[in-house]
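Try it yourself: sequence plus 9Z3, in.
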Amino acid sequence: MSSKLTVDRAQSESVQEAVVSSILSERKVIDPDTYFDDNKPPANLRWANGRVSEFVAQQPKERPIALVTSGGTTVPLENNTVRFVDNFSAGTRGSSSAEQFLASGYAVIYLYRDQSLQPFNRHYSHNPDGVLGYLDIVDGKVVVKPEWAEQMHRDLELFKRYKNANQLLMVSFTTLSDYLFLLREISLILAPLGPRAMLYLAAAVSDFFIPTHIMAEHKIQSGSGDLTLRMNQVPKFLRPLVKNWVPRCFIISFKLETDSELLAPKARHALEKYGHQIVIANLLHTRKWQVWLFTNSEPEPYLLQISKEDIENNRDIEHYLVVELARRHQEYISNSNQL
Ligand code: 9Z3
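Structure, out:
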């Protein structure tokens, strides 16, 4: 498969033609190790390093820690970015799971796509009037509308409780590159914790990207016909993550497909290839109701699905999923302690 991007146009301008030919001459899959030398780190990397190190150091020794990634990565088409390719994810899985991990006694580092759903805030993103849609003015005072008051009270109370207990840290990303730099940075901070740290990789990560050095510098100009994109394959980061960054931690990745025939073989393939603990497989259209847990030790996947009653009672699948994962994580910790 070709692995480099071309940004070309019929009758394109000379700069763009030069980019195209230089790209066409280099078609190879990029090594995960060289990725970080060739791409720019995000502006919040140093801040994240300091805050995550501090957060981890402040946790009581017995408290398990979960890195929860959430939301989709963007892939810019221009260095001065006007356009980008996005990855599908609302951040529901990640934000709901983060709430459940907190309820299960975890400290949570929530690595999320800027503007995507966040724990405890996630119920307040769908009002056509924005935040003002939840509020009213009564006797000259701003109040929460009665129909939202109970839920908002509950969410605010939990949010404050976990923040005060120093159990929740939020770090945001936008692009694929931001995500990968932050993932590596945070992983390396968690590595010394070994089995006590869990990585729950629910973010929807692009498989294709345009390396910075071959990306158009300025806004790609219109007016000369169609635009064709050729994108490089993103290096397989799960390999160095499992093998080198956090080899002793408990790692859960997600596999998203739209074709049900592909789901099981692809989940199994990921497990065999990377050798981590769990792959959670889900289909785009049923992801809120059904997931399958694949492990290397079980011949059949473990199916988790929620009932009509759960849906009617607003009970998310993440509630059951996280309970099951926390149980398996505890087992992993106990088994590691016995070695
Ligand atoms: C998932 O499969 C998540 O469950 C969803 C959650 C993104 C579907 P929402 O945020 O959706 O609740 O709307 N995430 C992982 C997707 C992914 O990029 N996986 C890669 C792959 O499938 C491997 S890391 O190849």
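One thing you can check immediately is this: The pocket of 9Z3 is lined by residues 89-93, 201-202, 204-205, 253-256, 282, 287 (CB under 6 Å).
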